Amino acid sequence: MKKLVFALIAALSVALTGCSSFESDPIEPNIIGTTFLQEEKGLIFAEFDSVRYAPTIIYIGKKVGRDGIEAKIEPIAGMQVTAFTSNMHQKPVFFAGQVTADQIEKYYHRDFTALIILAIIIIGLMLMCIIIPAVNGKRTAKVADVHD
Fold first, then answer.
1. Stated pTM of the model
2. With b meaning 16 or more CB within 10 Å and e meaning fewer, what string describes 100-124?
3. The predicted structure's pLDDT at residue 12
């Protein structure tokens, strides 16, 4: 029993001290630029250094609801957008408005520390509620057999 408690404490301490290992890797956004969407012959596009990109989805930079669904809007001529690429996105991605690399990084940042700690707590409770009483029950049964 002491070994199980020690293992649980060790696992919890590793989880709490190694929290940064449970975070997502940075996406390192490379901002192409910020511009206003234009329309020509029914095609909406963003132009950067004489190169035209046709966005189909524009992220508003906020996550909606409990599940963190990415909020998106359709492109509209005259809308200000920021385009970027990253180690996660090879093709340009568009955000509404003028955003910085730090804001983009924060948007994509994920932290799984709470999930890992919750899993360790659940495993610990299972150990204490199922395995430890079973081990103690076997010890009690053996002692009872010796005295009979």
1. 0.61
2. ebeebeebbeeeeeeebeeebeeeb
3. 63
